[in-house]
C-alpha cells in the first residue's frame, strides 16, 4: 500500500483517475480501524489533509465553506460557527473523543456511509451541500443525496468531496441535534435526531426540517412532522404529531443495542426534544425570549 499526500485538488483527482484502487482519507479514524479489521487495502491511500482548501473554515455574507477534511474540533472551537449552527457544532462535538475530533472530518463522517454518523442529520437539516471534485471538474450535491445505503455513496470512484457549503442561518432560526447512546460517551448512536426551525414574526413556526439517523439505511427526513409544525407553535398537540411521525418513518435494525420498538420510541422522543431546543434557540437568537 502506497501513501501519497497531494497538495492540490487537481493532483488528487488525477491520482484517483489513474489508480483504480486508490482511496482518499482525511482523519483515518474510520479507515485505519477498518484496515486493521481486515478490510482489503487499497493500492494507494490518498491523504487529503495536505490540500489547504480541504482544511479550512471560511465565512462570507451568504455562506460558510468548510473544507471536507477539516478536523471536527476546528468546528466546535470556532465560536462564530458554533453560535450560528449550535446543533451542527454539537453533532461534530459528539464524535468520539477529543483525540478523535482532532482528526475526524465531516467528509469522512459522511463518506464512511454509516447510518449512525452523527454529523449527517445535523447537516441535512441545515441543507448543507457537498462540492465534489472529479476528473471533469466539480459538481454540487445536497448532503442528503450523497449516501445511498450503508457504506454506499453516489460518488464515482474517482470523485471526492472538497468542501461543504452551508448557507448562513436565516433570522429567527435555530438548529439542534440529539442522540441516544447506551453508554455515556464513546458510543455509536442508537438514534440521532436533528431539527431546524425558522419562526415567523408572530412566533409561530414558518419552516421546519426534521431528520433522523441510525433508524434506517440512510438518514431520513420526517415530512409529516415538518408539516405538523409549520403554521403552529410547538404545543402538546404538534409535538405529539412530531413524535408519532418520527416513530412511524423509522425502518431500524433490531440488534443487541436496541430493538425495533425501542428505536422507534426513542426516535419520537428525540425528534420532539430536538424541535423544542431548535425553537428555543431561534427565540433566543432573535431576542424573542
Ligand atoms: C474511538 C472512535 C469513536 C468514534 N465515535 C464516533 C461517534 O461518536 N460518532 C460518529 O459519527 N462517528 C464516530 N466514529 C467514527 C469516525 O471517527 C467518524 O466517522 C469520523 O468523522 C470519520 O472522519 P475521518 O476524517 O477520520 O474519516 P476517514 O477515516 O479518513 O474516512 C472515512 C471514509 O470516508 C472516505 N472519505 C474521507 N474523506 C472523504 C472525502 N473528502 N471525500 C470522499 N470520501 C472521503 C474515506 O475514503 C473512507 O471511506 C468513531 C471512531 C472511533 C475510532
Task: Explain what this protein looks like in three dimensions.
There is one protein chain. With 289 residues, the protein is of the alpha+beta class. It has 11 helices and 14 strands. The protein folds into 2 domains: 2-167, Uridine Diphospho-n-acetylenolpyruvylglucosamine Reductase, domain 3 (2-Layer Sandwich); 173-285, Enolase-like, domain 1 (2-Layer Sandwich). It has helices at residues 9-18, 31-36, 72-77, 79-84, 86-92, 98-101, 106-111, 119-125, 223-229, 236-249, 260-285; strands at 2-4, 22-25, 44-47, 57-59, 63-67, 129-134, 137-142, 147-149, 152-153, 160-167, 173-180, 191-199, 205-213, 220-221. β12 (191-199) and β13 form a beta hairpin. The longest helix has 26 residues, at 260-285. The termini are far apart. The mean pLDDT is 96. It binds flavin-adenine dinucleotide.
Could you say which small molecules are bound to this protein? flavin-adenine dinucleotide
Q: Report how far apart the termini are.
A: 57 Å
Please give the order of strands in the largest beta sheet.
4-5-10-6-7
Task: Tally the structural domains.
Answer: 2
Describe the global form: globular
Bin the helical content. Answer: 25-40%
Contiguous helical run count: 11
The helix-strand sequence is EHEHEEEHHHHHHEEEEEEEEEHHH
Percentage of residues in DSSP E strands = 15-25%
Radius of gyration: 19 Å
Overall pLDDT: 96
- Number of DSSP-assigned strands: 14
CATH topology of the largest domain: Uridine Diphospho-n-acetylenolpyruvylglucosamine Reductase, domain 3
Q: How is the main sheet built?
A: 5 strands, antiparallel
Low-confidence stretches: none
CATH class of the largest domain: Alpha Beta
CATH architecture term of the largest domain: 2-Layer Sandwich
Class from helix and strand fractions: alpha+beta
Amino acid at each position: 500500500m502506497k501513501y501519497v499526500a497531494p497538495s492540490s485538488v487537481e493532483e488528487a483527482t488525477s491520482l484517483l483517475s489513474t489508480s483504480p484502487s486508490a482511496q482518499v482519507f482525511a482523519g483515518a479514524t474510520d479507515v485505519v480501524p477498518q484496515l486493521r479489521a481486515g478490510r482489503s487495502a487499497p493500492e494507494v491511500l490518498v491523504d487529503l489533509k495536505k490540500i489547504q482548501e480541504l482544511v479550512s473554515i471560511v465565512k462570507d455574507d451568504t455562506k460558510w465553506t468548510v473544507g471536507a477534511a477539516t478536523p471536527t474540533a476546528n468546528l466546535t472551537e470556532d465560536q462564530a460557527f458554533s453560535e450560528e449552527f449550535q446543533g451542527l457544532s454539537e453533532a461534530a462535538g459528539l464524535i468520539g473523543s477529543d483525540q478523535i475530533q482532532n482528526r475526524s472530518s465531516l467528509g469522512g463522517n459522511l463518506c464512511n456511509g454509516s447510518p449512525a454518523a452523527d454529523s449527517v442529520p445535523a447537516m441535512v437539516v441545515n441543507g448543507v451541500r457537498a462540492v465534489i471534485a472529479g476528473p471533469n471538474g466539480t459538481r454540487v450535491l445536497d448532503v442528503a443525496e450523497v449516501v445511498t445505503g450503508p457504506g454506499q455513496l453516489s460518488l464515482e470512484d474517482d470523485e471526492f468531496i472538497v468542501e461543504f457549503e452551508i448557507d448562513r442561518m436565516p433570522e429567527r432560526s435555530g438548529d439542534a441535534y440529539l442522540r441516544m447512546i447506551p453508554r455515556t460517551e464513546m458510543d455509536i448512536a442508537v438514534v440521532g435526531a436533528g431539527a431546524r426551525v425558522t419562526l415567523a414574526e408572530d412566533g409561530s413556526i414558518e419552516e421546519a426540517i426534521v431528520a433522523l439517523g441510525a433508524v434506517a439505511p440512510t438518514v431520513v427526513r420526517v415530512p409529516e412532522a415538518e408539516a405538523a409544525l409549520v403554521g403552529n407553535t410547538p404545543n402538546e398537540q404538534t409535538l405529539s404529531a412530531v413524535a408519532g411521525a418520527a416513530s412511524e418513518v423509522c425502518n431500524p435494525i433490531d440488534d443487541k443495542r436496541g430493538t425495533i420498538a425501542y428505536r422507534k420510541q426513542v426516535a419520537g422522543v428525540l425528534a420532539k426534544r430536538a424541535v423544542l431546543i431548535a425553537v428555543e434557540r431561534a427565540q433566543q437568537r432573535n431576542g424573542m425570549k
